[in-house]
Q: What sequence folds into this?
């Protein structure tokens, strides 16, 4: 807004050299935006809040509902009734996408569209740097992980006419099980196998399942990376090999796995060695934004595009905006620092829990394949079982410690 | 926060009678909140922004991520990285719902849950007052209309095992057509019939379709209320009668129909005379919030609950918060005023377009059954067709008039 | 920020014609800013909130504390500790002015300086249009009216060595009396004279005072425009004539007089006919900003500049920012509408109070020279006096009617 | 707002135990506020932004302009025209103080008054803990240091009728010199004396001045603590002794001295040994708020009150609100951490400058009595003088290093 001619005019009011210095300061910020538009990558250093706000504001002014003199006669005009609502969305109202494709540009919303495109670019790069450099395409979808898996499954339906089974190495997480049902498929559960302390994918049982059901009846194999100990991430590489061999799509629930280089590495390797079509992750669990979005990514650009086109209609821009802000705020360095912190804290927790376990005659489970979660025996509570376990949970809860199971 | 004991303490600093008057002013706002919690209905008069903000802030403080001394060790802790993001969501991060049910209460998010429950209550009442008083249940879902229709269709699948057809009186709207495909069903298109200027539902053809396909193979009939002239809202009552007779679910796409008492009346009447299971509407098109949410409502409480339970996992709270703010901001009077304004402007537009049409030797189509949209002949452009029509669109566009087709 | 080259780059992400339309929309706002910088006058139409915020944000980025890479080693670096404080001041921290002059440009704060300059220009124009077109200079000072009058008096001291009296037609307003004492002068009170219902300036008594004290001992005559009935605005023209004749400075307390064309007209006429050096008005009472600032204006540019130079050190920018926002938000039309409303409401109040007075056997005082305030007899309360008058006040107070005396 | 009865009602919507836990979380914040009101001291730990905002919001609701149903008929009703302005001031518009006293409670503004009282209490405690525990009274005044010194001087005038000299050990700071002139007094400059590298107060010359001018003609001695090397803080203890001996008021310009325990210690000791009436400090320089306020403090409660009563009229609340937020945000620990950081960085700067000076054949001045500022010889620039010195300044400036002289 304080463009060249406006800066020039300012020299009538304040001395020229002050204006020049200010102009230089403004141009530093303009350059940040230029580099973002040019490279569409995470900035090395995070941006300050002001620069982020300025950019969002300018993008918002590029949407038709903020055009001076706009006269919207239709039903899709991004009218916003409440000022409070308008402000919290930076006056962006059009959402993202068009009827035909959640990733398409909206003619009425150049700014929102630009924001969405940029966010998807940043997200793709983050996934690549987090450990899956071969990722071909990615986009933010304003639905949580479960519903996003539904969308992937519904897309696969078109490619796998007649198939109705989803092979699924068991994971005790409701919404994951439910997403197969919601998509209208029949989950075929493959029980995990105990290897010492760990529950790991039973590859033989999985292959047996495939042979019994026949490849053409199988929509996909749905594996999981991030999970609670003593279960470990699925053996993606071996599953991927089977999927390639039998020509079956392979979908990965990577819910909170981006934060773990091991999970990401598994995904990357599996995609190299065998077949891995798409992987889905939560935006709130990996990028610390409010619940509501997820990222669908994959190694086959066409499939990812097809998933985007399966979404009918426009969609909320809020999760994209949250990701946009958060990624610019963190920058590459900020994000990497968070990853390191998590790793460090995980090791610290492991050490301390080992000590506590020993002190109480218990034992930390050896679940070295699970880089995210830890388990501890509670053998001294044996016999009392249910009741006392609930009691522990409740004691933790009232001490404001949440997240333990 | 300035509770009784804190107000009492204030008397040590400022005179007692000033404190008393202030206490009274505070209690007026507390009472508004009390009445909202008690009645869970739209306030007659809209609230001021401050009262809305205060309530949201207090609700937010009831979520565990804002508990002083909270120590979250799990993956669902509503950590928010960016302050800018935190602020725009009033520091609410847990979203709504649980793995099992989008309408369930979250133990970690008492405040967000309360907000969501209240919003759904307000929304139900608004629909009832807008013309469908028999509506039994309603909830805000953080997906746009198309994807919400998908969710409804996926829920119906469980009730209609084996069925694969959706009977659909044609409407030229991409995302509506797409939603049936995305849900994995086969749309059976029933062409509309021209009655003078109007394109209306061909009831006979529809019944014929049912008989040909057989009721048990039909997932549902999907009708539409709000649409562009010369098409008119579907003849819901007659369709509902057939659905009842053949025992077929009836789903209504009421995208932008809440604003029209006629559309709502059609829905209400159809539910009385025949069968109408659920109707879906856009939150942005009817309540002027940013794109991203819709409202699923219906006359069968069990079905609506089942739809909520079909959604796998937690979901974005943003569309609910937007609706919550907007409805409290408008109040009953504000909302009714908007409805009246729309009616008034529609009539004004009709009058003026009639004049303009006459002036140019054209004619406003007589589409009296369509209470929302108007059509005009462009016969003088005949012959040139495509090109000049596009030109008109482009001329309107550069004059900042959007929404015309 | 979305400058030409950044818009150009955007075309790689979204279609060119969308970018062009958005660029045009952006340039409309840039033009508003251009015109402001060029003409430094109130825009005819008020600006929308977004444009105001964008401008403030850009100005803020022109201050050195917001320069990327700034390294402030001194004590005047506008460090802001709390983010909440930073945000509410748009990250402007340098205040306005320099040690030597409250109206001087700060090298470290080009943006704040520009804002301050523009505000003073807008304010000058508003005063001119409100009825005093000959006003030569004006500036916002971040002190309320009383303290600003002190500043004027302290400035006059330098011009009137040895003088110690201020001649002051009585007005029962504490801070006005106090300001003379605070400035270290001796108020010489000239009692008003009753003309029928009105208390008006006693010009003869005033001239007598001048002659008794001798002109050279008099710092100035301090008159008042806005006041409570039955007192009327001072007879500025006649006082001004005397001031000219005796060569005595004339200072006007125009506290809430800008809103009244009559008060402004008095000031203008007095400056033409006689001598009127400076007039001071409250920013909150005339322009509906929070308490804290006032406007010092006058017909002698040198004196006004001297007053600005008398203020030692930098000063709060908050009142200027509030004025800047408010004036841009209102625009010329908005401000004139407020003036008309006030006039209309005053007449309405007059009519209704007349009726009520008659109904209760009382009488509205005929104070036609007071365009702002009304008085009513309370003769039926006679005898009980003090107590019952207090009771009336208290009854109004508990009914939330404030401002009555 | 979510008071007991509203929480009780919430149990109809969400499970009782969730409400209870949330209620407990709310009460933690209510307790913080309770303790603040009870003790009126800086909290040990800083508050989070939300708690601060909630408190400000509630206080704001206690002001009459935010009363539901308020009908303000007067000129002091805190009407706020622009929503943007209203929000940035938390809808507080009444300012602080009354006509008679800047520290008095306003009947129309219970909340603002409470905020102001609390701020002054917090400020008093901070000064005591920073090194002047005997301080009897303190208040925030919405004028920068220079104008606040004027206010102090104007107050002293009433106590020192006829006196016209201010004795002032020289300090090269424009606004300090100007404040004596603005107050209408005659500065009597006492030149400093060179002790090795340091410029220190010449006590003998000062006493000589007193004797020459005679005590009764002297308004006060005005000393300075914080200053640029090679000048050092004035020898307050010795000056205070003289002031006591000759019965002359002693005013201290402690502009940016609160951050230095040495400066505060000087003040405290001087007040014990001799006479020190009041000391004035900048709020921006010591507490990192935007320019605009200062703190007047002293050891004689009556004098400080008198200064407050000298301010005519109400005043801006903005500097108080900024201080209120900042002090609650920092807490005792946060403030002490800042003080330690400053000390640490000062020593670091000293070390590094010593090295650089040596490297270039220069020398860091030995100004051990100045705990805030450092000087360096620039002897190699000798001969070129003016020009090259300016060049250094300019080179630092373009490298974004400001604050060097």
A:
């Amino acid at each position: 807004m304080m463009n060249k001619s406006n800066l020039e005019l300012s020299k009538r009011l304040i001395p020229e050299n002050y204006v020049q210095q200010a102009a230089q300061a403004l141009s530093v910020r303009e350059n940040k935006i230029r580099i973002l538009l040019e490279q569409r990558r995470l900035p090395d250093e995070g941006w300050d809040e002001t620069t982020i706000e300025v950019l969002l504001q300018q993008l918002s002014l590029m949407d038709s509902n903020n055009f001076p003199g706009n006269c919207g006669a239709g039903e899709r005009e991004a009218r916003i009734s409440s000022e409070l609502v308008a402000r919290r969305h930076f006056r962006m109202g059009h959402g993202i996408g068009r009827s035909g494709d959640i990733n398409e540009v909206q003619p009425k919303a150049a700014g929102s569209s630009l924001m969405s495109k940029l966010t998807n670019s940043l997200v793709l790069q983050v996934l690549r740097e987090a450990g899956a450099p071969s990722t071909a395409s990615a986009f933010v979808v304003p639905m949580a992980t479960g519903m996003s898996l539904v969308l992937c499954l519904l897309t696969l339906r078109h490619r796998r006419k007649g198939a109705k089974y989803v092979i699924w190495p068991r994971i005790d997480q409701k919404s994951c099980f439910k997403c197969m049902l919601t998509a209208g498929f029949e989950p075929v559960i493959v029980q995990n196998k105990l290897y010492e302390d760990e529950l790991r994918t039973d590859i033989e049982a999985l292959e047996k399942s495939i042979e019994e059901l026949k490849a053409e009846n199988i929509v996909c194999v749905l594996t999981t990376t991030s999970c609670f100990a003593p279960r470990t991430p699925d053996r993606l590489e071996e599953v991927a090999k089977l999927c390639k061999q039998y020509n079956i799509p392979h979908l990965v629930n990577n819910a909170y796995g981006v934060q773990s280089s091991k999970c990401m590495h598994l995904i990357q390797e599996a995609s190299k060695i065998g077949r891995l079509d798409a992987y889905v992750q939560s935006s709130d669990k990996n990028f610390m934004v409010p619940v509501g979005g997820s990222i669908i990514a994959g190694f086959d650009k066409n499939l990812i595009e097809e998933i985007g086109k399966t979404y009918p209609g426009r969609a909320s821009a809020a999760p994209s905006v949250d990701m946009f802000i958060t990624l610019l705020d963190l920058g590459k360095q900020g994000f990497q620092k968070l990853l390191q912190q998590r790793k460090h804290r995980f090791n610290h927790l492991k050490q301390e829990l080992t000590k506590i376990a020993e002190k109480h005659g218990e034992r930390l489970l050896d679940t070295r394949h699970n880089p995210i979660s830890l388990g501890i025996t509670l053998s001294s509570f044996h016999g009392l079982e249910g009741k006392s376990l609930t009691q522990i949970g409740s004691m933790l809860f009232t001490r404001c410690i949440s997240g333990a199971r």
In short: The longest strand of chain B covers residues 218-224. Chain B touches chain A through 90 residues (CB under 8 Å).
